[in-house]
Amino acid sequence: MVNEMTEFHLGLSIRGALRWGDYEMRNALKWIKKDGGAVFASVSELRGEMAEMLASGIEMIPFAECDNWDDKKGCLGHEKEKQCDTSPLPLQPV
Ligand SMILES: [Zn+2]
Question: Which of 31, 49, 58, 94 supports an S-S bond with 71, CB 3.0-4.6 Å?
């Protein structure tokens, strides 16, 4: 169920990214990392990796650490922790 208590992580559509030109791809080299944090050596290496991900059924990659990620739909949502306890205070006779 989706309501205001649910938040979502943003992600990148690989299908969309594969349409980027070389300029956008070179920019993406600065922030898209391999598993484990290593950088891609070149635009063609990054493109190759994206094509492989798509071929293996991965459509979306998360921008942030996400423990409820769907490789096709992206973040499935996280129930936010309640900020404050809204239960009524017990009534105390004075
Ligand atoms: Zn998430």
Answer: 58
Residue 63 has pLDDT above 70, yes or no: yes
**In the prediction, which pLDDT does 37 show?**
87
Q: How far, in Å, from the CA of 74 to the mean position of ligand 1?
A: 8
Give the start-to-end residue ranges of the domains of the chain.
13-79
Gap from CA of 70 to ligand 1 centroid (Å): 9
Ligand 1 centroid distance, CA of 75 (Å): 4
In angstroms, the Cα distances linking 73 to 1, 38, 65 are 15, 25, 15
* pTM: predicted TM-score of the whole model, two decimal places: 0.71
pLDDT tens digits along 8-42: 999 999 999 999 999 999 999 998 888 888 999 99
